[in-house]
Amino acid sequence: MKVSRAQVRQLRRDNAAWPVTLKEVAREDWPMFVISGPPRLRVMRSRDFLVQIFREHDHLRLSVNRTDWDEIQQRWKEDISWDDLQRLKAEAGYDDMWAVEIFPPDTEVVNVANMRHVWLLPEAPAFAWRRPLLSRHVVSKKAMASVQPPINPHGGAE
Fold it and tell me: Picking from 28-37, 64-73, 80-89, which range would have the lowest pLDDT averaged per residue?
């Protein structure tokens, strides 16, 4: 899709009218959704981000993209940081929930836009880092090795 310079300027004017934090978008103003998939429950928008919330199986998924257009790449701008995702999750009302982002094997990658997807979990995953377990002290590799054997990413201990 080729976007003209005039369209980009208008998009930027439209973006400036939105607040810095997420705001609920009325259903009649939701972006068109052309790919069939799970039901979209909510859409939220800020000056810099669009967050769409989907029900997928037993989980909610937050799909996040920037609202600015990269004129050179002709796609939505990149660079959504971890801090952005954590803040947007909270602004959407899910600050008390755990969430994960998935990085599939290369053969399963679906990359059609500069979007990030996080799945909200009903409880903390077994592998979650918890504040009480994390110390402000630096733990040496030797000390960590004595706690648990190294893990082979393809299954089992090394």
Answer: 28-37
Q: Give the confidence band of 142 by pLDDT, cuts at 50, 70, 90.
A: low
- Length reported for the chain: 158
DSSP labels, the chain = ----HHHHHHHHHHHHTS-SS-EEPPGGGSPP--S--SPEEEEEE-SSEEEEEEEETTEEEEEEEESSEETTTTEE-----HHHHHHHHHHTT-TTSEEE-----GGG---SSSEEEEEEESS--TT---GGG--SSPPPHHHHHHHSPPBPTTSSB-
Q: Fill in the DSSP letter of residue 157.
A: B
Q: Which pTM does this prediction carry?
A: 0.77
Query: What are the boundaries of each domain within the chain?
Result: 5-127
62 forms beta bridges with: 53, 118
DSSP 58: T
